[in-house]
Every structure is written in structure tokens, then in C-alpha cells.
Fold this protein.
Amino acid sequence: MGDAFLTRLDGPAPEAAVARDIARRAVPAAPAFVLLGLAMGGVDGGISALYALAIVVGNLVLAAALMAGAARISVALLMGAALFGFLLRLGLVFVAVMAVRDASWMHLPSLGITLIVAHLGLLFWEMRYVSLSLAHPGLKPGRRSTTVPSRQHEESIVR
Amino acid sequence: MGVIQTAVQLATETTAEAGTAALTAADQKGISGAASAGYAYGLAAIGPGIGIGYLVGQAVSAMARQPEAAGMVRTTMFLGIAFTEALALIGFVVFILLKFV
């Protein structure tokens, strides 16, 4: 039992790498979300969608920072950071939305839809890379594999 | 002293009656809607909380058993937490859409 309080995970933090990847992928995905917002609520919708994307990325980066920092101290703190971090981040998302809900540029349906779609979309995009790199380290899905998997790629998975 | 007590009592009753009379059916509907949205948001956060607790507990257990796989476990744990958190975000979005739109 005492080990859980003393054991710490030194070295590189995979959470930070995953969050960095997600933040990097949010940049090319941003125009798509802005277009979605524009279609739903005009210019206000586009700005709201961008704000929602910033909330999603900030939320994931904060989660990674909390967990990476806690893991360097102890595993028990990692558990605490994951659970109380969940509450903290949920509260921060609430505050971030409530703070601007009466703003002139706010379009709540665009913000809400973008929050869900961006969160899930970016995670699925990242999961595609993570799952493949965990199964086959060093191998990443290329442009070709998104449409028709190449024979080499299939063979590498079979092996 | 008795006069003051009676005056306070009368004032309280009058205020309460005025408050009740001021609440129309639309107001009551709005209040109950806001309360329901709040309950929905709170209830939507319970499930992910349980899920994240279970997920992190199992991940820490896995890291204790196989410290050499800690990197892989932490990566999948982080993604799992983020996916579980999406449920709470959906609850939050339903809350703001019900309450403010």
C-alpha cells in the first residue's frame, strides 16, 4: 500500500505527447469547425466554434499537464489528479462558457455542437495513430492507408 | 415586543404572498426547467466520474504489475479518460442548450 504513495513515474510523459499531438491536429481541423459554425449561426457561429475548439484543446492540454506533473510525484497523486482534475476541468469548462454566454458574438448551439464534435473527432484522430503505433511501433498510417490499405501495410499487420 | 413580532410576522406573510402571486405559470415552468437542466448536468457527471475512477484504478494496478509497460498504459489511460469525459461534456452541452437556448 505504501508503494502506491512512494512509487513515481519518471521519464517522458506520454500524456503530454498525446495532448501536443491533439493540439497540433486541431490547427488544420479548425477551418472545418469554423465552417460548421458558419453554417449553423453565421459569423457568430464561426467565432463560437473557434472558441469551443480552444476550450477542447485547453481542456486536454490541462488534463495532460496535471497528470504528467502528478505522475512525477507519485502514482497515488496521479489517481487524485485524474479524478479531481476531471471535476476541476469540468468546472473550468462551465466557467469558460458561462463567462461569455451573454456576449454579442456567442451562438450557443454552434458552441455546444463544436464542443462535442471537436472533442470526439480529435480523440478518434489521435487514437488512430496511437493504436497503430502501440501495435506496431514506428509505423504510422499514411495518406494512402486512409482510403485503400496497401498490401505492405496489411502484411505488416498480419505479421 | 409583541407588537414588533406581529409586525415582522405580517411583513413576512405579505412578502411571501406577493412572491407567490408574482410567480406565473411561465415563471414556474422556467424554474422547473432550470432545476431539471441542473439535475441532468449533475447526473451526467456521475457516470464519467465512476468510469474515470475505475479506469485509473485499473491503470495504476497494471503499472504496478508491469512497470515496463507504464508508458503504453498511461497513453491508453489518457485517451480513455478523455473519451469518458466526452460523456460529461455531452451532458454539459445538453444543459446549456436546454437552459439558455
Q: What stands out?
A: Helices of chain B lie at 2-22, 25-65, 70-100.
